[in-house]
Design brief:
globular, 242 residues, 43% helix
């Protein structure tokens, strides 16, 4: 995550670049465009990235799987970083890195005529995206140091929701056990100079993430913010009417 040391992020499930524009103009540092749970496709990703770049908003795309075709399409949009889910082993990590980086660091195919390289006008400095991994299982936690120390990994997203399911506490993403796992991952991120992201839903949880040492707290999801705001407006209306 070059040129970013800390800041505020948000998950973007909605596939409109207007949402991206609102996120940027609200002062966020980054948006995570979600291809796993969101309703995005390569075209909407491209549209959102155009809007993000015009606003100097950092973009991360969560890849839903290790499909080589999808990885190439997303990278060629010019996205700043890609985030791989469910990373648990060094072998798995090596494979997705190989699919994502240009020779000699990987074996991703290359066309200079795409958005990333100014449609054939860029003659040098063919850059790779930053690589991030989601650590969201007990196996991932167990192997976290070996995963995080990989030189190609620039950041880690701590997947509290999937972990909460695995320990039979679904949705309790700030339980003692989850925070203990987060502290362990943060420790290795600091040791190997990697950035870490994790989600929060309210001010108390945000304060916890900052205290633990999370570099980029992620302010929940665009759909959640919209739903909560609309519900508050409806409740205010009902209170006045009654």
């Amino acid at each position: 995550m070059k040129n970013l040391t800390s800041g505020l992020g948000i998950w973007q499930i909605l596939n409109s670049n207007i949402i991206t524009d609102i996120i940027a103009k609200a002062g966020f540092s980054l948006t995570i465009l979600d291809l796993e749970h969101g309703i995005h496709n390569p075209q909407t990703i491209q549209d959102c990235i155009f809007t993000a770049k015009s606003n100097s908003l950092y973009t991360i795309v969560r890849i839903p799987c290790d499909s080589y075709q999808l990885i190439v399409q997303v990278i060629d949009t010019g996205v700043d970083a890609i985030l791989f889910p469910h990373i648990e082993s060094t072998e798995q990590l090596k494979d997705v890195i190989g699919r994502s980086l240009l020779f000699p660091n990987g074996n991703k195919s290359f066309s200079p005529f795409v958005t990333r390289y100014n449609y054939g006008q860029k003659k040098e400095n063919y850059t790779n995206p930053s690589i991030g991994i989601l650590i969201e299982s007990l196996n991932g936690i167990k192997n976290s140091e070996n995963l995080i120390k990989n030189k190609e990994v620039e950041f880690v997203y701590f997947g509290a929701y999937d972990l909460s399911l695995e320990i039979n506490k679904p949705g309790e993403i700030f339980s003692f056990e989850i925070i203990s796992y987060l502290r362990e991952v943060v420790k290795y991120c600091k040791k190997y100079n990697k950035k870490i992201l994790s989600i929060y839903r309210n001010k108390k949880e945000l304060e916890c993430l900052i205290e633990v040492g999370v570099d980029f707290p992620v302010s929940s999801v665009d759909t959640s913010h919209l739903m909560n705001k609309l519900k508050k407006e409806r409740e205010a209306y009902k209170e006045i009417k009654n």
